[in-house]
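Checklist before submission:
- one chain only
- standard amino acids only
- sequence pasted in full

Submission:
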Amino acid sequence: MKRFYKNANYAADDQGYFGIALDDRPIKTPAKAPLVCKSEALAKAVCAEWNAQEDKIMPDTMPVTQYCYTALDYIPQNRAEITKTILNFLDTDLTCYRADNPTDLAAQQAAAWDPYLRWFEDIFAVPLQTTTALNALKQDAAAHKAVGAHVESLYDEQLAIAQDLTAACGSLIMALCFVKGDTRKEDIFAASFVEELYQGAIYDEERYGIDPIQDKQRQRLERDLSAAQTYLSALGYF
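Returned file contents:
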């Protein structure tokens, strides 16, 4: 879509929310609801994305705005389905499926993933199983119950980030740790690509270049993590 406005701005309403407008015309979400932010910091971040657009509006370059849309339009109407979907990741969580060979890859996985398993046990008081076999795990029912209650307690904005990062990282554990503010975006990025970064070092991708598909996946996650951090920080969640 061609850029049709000169400036994105925001204004507070009488309820303390901040509405976003393009040349003083209020923006609507895809579901036709007013685009409103719960904090001035978030409103500034959304306006910055709209003002950064050039001749064409590129939604993929506005991830904070997209998170706002998700939290406003999608999460409230679909919480039960979203919760069920992401809880299914607990039995297939990336952090629980390990290599036993080569040993240096196994060591790198342990270094990247063990802190998340320790975090999980500290928070939920239930240890998780890990495996080097191909068979799927079935985590303890107590783990499922504890995580389910936690996910159901998340605010819509937190759940918007949790569902996105769970799918992007293949790990509900890492996503929940991030949403709680207990891990850095750099650490979760490295933990999401342990095997790929290991292979990249073997094939000297710094010299010969990254596989284009891998490069796109890494750029996408890096972008989403930065946007998620901006979004949750602006809302005061961490």
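Reviewer check: The CA atoms of residues 200 and 209 lie 9 Å apart.
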